[in-house]
Amino acid sequence: TLKDNTVIVVLGASGDLAKKKTYPALFGLYRNGFLPSGVHIVGYARTKMDDEEYHKRTTGYIKNPNNDPEITAKIEEFKALSSYVSGSYEDPAAFDNLNKVLESIESGYQTKERNRVFYLALPPSVFIPVAKNLKENCYIFKGGVNRMIVEKPFGKDTASCRELLTSLKQHWTEDETYRIDHYLGKEMVKNLLVLRFANVAMGAAWDKNSISNVQITFKEPFGTEGRGGYFDEFGIIRDILQNHLLQVLSILTMERPVSFAAEDIRDEKVKVLRAIPPVERNDTLLGQYVAAGGKPGYLDDDTVPQNSVCPTYAATTLWIHNPRWEGVPFILKAGKALNEAKVEIRIQFKDVTQGIFKDISRNELVIRIQPSEAVYLKLNAKTPGLYTRAMPTEMDLTYKRRFADIQIPEAYEALILDALKGDHSNFVRDDELDVAWKIFTPILHWIEGQSGPRPKPVTYPYGSRGPKELESFIGKYGYKRSVEG
Ligand code: BG6
């Protein structure tokens, strides 16, 4: 349940994440009446600015294309409940000052209860001092709850992640911590639980007996553009596969949880992830984009080190060693600077028993996460007419058509609301992070030259479908293109 008397503190309020995601999401919740009554939002960052400048920055990303007066009025109300404090991330005195501001807001409450939610929209270099300073200067020990929301990167491999977790745990308990993987807030990812477990028809075909291979694909049509400094240190595997795509995979493949309770769900996710051995080099295809069509290559980005071999594209095949999934390849692939923006799950079923049919397409269930959420099943039906011939067609649940009047919430809105309610289901638990890193750490160390010379990625042109080697890579795992009808 939502707690009244809550202050939300956004640390890193002048940064990119806060401007583009956190504030628009907070506004979306406010506008639709989802924030607790009497809520206050306090922005905190190093930049010195007055409230006016702060309001300009934090509302700059809120969309109101047609100057809708209702939205304009709500923005004014939203400004009135939000204020700014500037201060260092390292200095305890600055946090003592923040605490005084929070106390003065809370002194206006009618009851004694007070709750504080700290959203760390910050670079990892300051996670630890901020967590410590918040605990020592801004924590409520009696008469309310404290919550801390944090976001990736959670370390760079198993060892550094453990180190970070250990340091943070000195100040904040697991129960108080909400680790965001924003893919868990996406509508279609949340739908997976329902699709799988509320449908006998789906559940019955959900294993190695029916499924040949699965692909989870992330495509973005732009490169690192100015973000090359960050990206080169992390690479596409840490940016997308190890977190977002692996999260999707775990929900797609876990056993049915006993209930919707957070720990029941997360227990099942951890269990299936533990059945996945580390990714093998042979099961990996790495790529880097080069200039094409007037667009710069990765190495042309000034913020990228010369001759970098950092992959901007990766396809890796994972195997799950349990009775449900033994032998089924799960291909996770992600790339920057491709031909389109798309994130989807493609489940390819096995061939129908030969005999009466030959050259017939396999069934495929596609769950499109974005853009344009959809679930569609490719199946074979009789071509209408006076003879019997099978043709491939689709059963199509495109949300835009079926649920035209329903606005799909932003991932960050869903997640912030969950954190305000104290629901951990869609946040990443510590042991989940640990198993996720174990799957990718050896391949990352290999890519980064910790076990011999660094592998050189193959190249692909900016704006293409990916490396030309991809077709044979997925073919190796049994993916068959549909027969054209
Ligand atoms: C972030 C990555 O986690 O996810 C970005 O750091 C990427 O590189 C982004 O662009 C993609 O998120 P979405 O919601 O646009 O698919």
From TrEMBL:
Task: Could you list this entry's UniProt keywords, alphabetically sorted.
Answer: Carbohydrate metabolism, Glucose metabolism, NADP, Oxidoreductase
The superkingdom listed in its UniProt entry is Eukaryota
Q: Which GO terms describe its molecular function?
A: glucose-6-phosphate dehydrogenase activity; NADP binding
Q: Where is the Glucose-6-phosphate dehydrogenase NAD-binding domain?
A: 9-191
Residues annotated as domain Glucose-6-phosphate dehydrogenase C-terminal: 193-479
Quote the pathway field.
Carbohydrate degradation; pentose phosphate pathway; D-ribulose 5-phosphate from D-glucose 6-phosphate (oxidative stage): step 1/3
Against PROSITE patterns, the record matches this protein to: G6P_DEHYDROGENASE
Q: Does the keyword Calcium apply?
A: no
GO cellular component terms attached to this protein's record: cytosol
Cited Gene3D superfamilies: Dihydrodipicolinate Reductase, domain 2, NAD(P)-binding Rossmann-like Domain
The record, for HAMAP family, names: G6PD
Its name, as the record gives it, is: Glucose-6-phosphate 1-dehydrogenase
Which source organism? Jaapia argillacea MUCL 33604
